[in-house]
Amino acid sequence: MPTLEALRIALREIADHKLRSFFTLLGIIVSVAFLVAVVAIIQGMNAYVEENLAGAIVGRNAFQIRQIPIGVGLVDDEELDALQRRPIIRPEEMSFVERALPDAMAISRRAWPAPRSDIRWRNRTVGAIQVFGATPAFHVVQDYEAAFGRFLTEIDMRERRPVAVLGWQVAENLFGNPVTGLDRTIRVGRTEVRVVGVVAEKGNVLGQSQDDFALVPISLFEGMYGRRRTMVISVKMAEAADVAGAMQRAEEAMRVARRLRPGQANNFTIDTAEGLISFWDNLTRVIFAVVPAVVAIGVVVGGIVIMNIMLMSVQERTREIGIRKSVGARRRDIRRQFLAETVTLAVLGGITGIAVGTAMAQLVAIVSPLPARVTWWSITLALTLGATTGVIFGVYPATRASKLDPVVAMRAE
Is 241 exposed, middle or buried (0-12, 13-18, 19+ CB in 10 A)? Predict the structure, then answer.
């Protein structure tokens, strides 16, 4: 029997039993849809982290010197305890880094973590706003642009002036029109400060606003919240190619500042955007480790269902098989016919699963901040999975059909 003829018969049988075919393929459809949707969301997230989140946290062409690395969430309790016992990053250590990196575009320090405080103006209150205490170069490292007014200056820091630069969202919520907030006196926590600038809108990253902050001179910040906080030293280079060499020099400067002997491990961390991307990759690797197991269970269950249905089909079509054999059909023709039907069923299940999975991924992208990117390799894998399932679980029913005795088969009703 020609392959095309076998496929034609297979499609006719599937069309004649639509409902049974659908329920037969349900396991494969769900498994493939899950595979495509999860891979699409994770791939979209990976690209999003690389393009947006890493730059928002660390800054482009930049790196940070920190007490604890960004990816601390994946370490065990013992390692976390050791990291937390590290000495804090102190303000005086920044001078060592500055001397080691005269070619840096900007070097800043800020207090960490940033506390959240209510900000008030007249009878309006904006709650739980991040308050950054930083040196004037902070806006350069973070690629902030002024929408109105100015940024912090060395005089602001040196004289501990009660001034603040607001994120766009905070200024908009307080004043309606952000420009009207300039030179207004607001209360950050318990401290009155004068608004000297508003940062241009940066938008959301993963649904989190990048515009809900207040930036004050670090000298004022220490008076508001205390000096016993660790610092984050941020360094911005002119070109991405300069970052690796600058990190080595910064590491040497920090080791000198902390009087670490040769062979002693660093008691600080230097993080880049690549460090955040690496942290995210480790996290998604854990998710990817679970996906194959879930998909495999679904495919096996779906394959068993297909095999059982095909065995029932062989039983129902015993007379048809006998007639075909009586008019000259060989065993391999019968085997090819039923195997083609099983593979066609499984491939149709894979195609349907791809469509459902793509729709699910797009729906997630529409209703949430999570992006989704359907990849060709996941589609190819899904189709291969469907075809392979059809072959593996279709061999036994097809072989059983081909071994029927034509005389006995002709007597079946």
Answer: exposed
* Contacts for 115-124: CB closer than 8 Å, 24+ residues apart: 115/225, 117/188, 117/189, 117/214, 118/189, 119/170, 119/174, 119/186, 119/187, 119/188, 119/214, 120/186, 120/187, 121/174, 121/175, 121/181, 121/184, 121/185, 121/186, 121/187, 124/173, 124/174
The token pair at 111 is 């207090």
Pairing, β 208-209 against β 204-205: antiparallel
Question: Phi and psi for 305 in degrees, rounded to 5?
Answer: -65, -45
Q: What is the tens place of the pLDDT at every residue in 168-206?
A: 999 999 999 998 999 999 999 999 999 999 999 987 765
Number of other CB atoms surrounding residue 407 within 10 Å: 10
User: Maximum Cα–Cα distance for the chain, whole Å?
Assistant: 105
CB 96 within 8 A of CB 256: yes
CA distance 28 to 162: 64
Is the pLDDT score of 256 beyond 90?
A: yes
Closest CA to 112 of 132, 126, 95, 129: 132
Q: Is the dihedral of CA 66, 69, 73, 75 positive or negative?
A: negative
CA torsion sign for 79, 81, 86, 90 is positive
| Residue 364: other Cβ atoms inside 10 A | 17
Q: How many helices (H) and strands (E) does the chain have?
A: 15, 13
Nearest-angstrom CA–CA distance, 268 and 79: 14
- pTM here is 0.64
Confidence of residue 366 (pLDDT cuts 50, 70, 90): confident
Token pair for 302:
């779906």
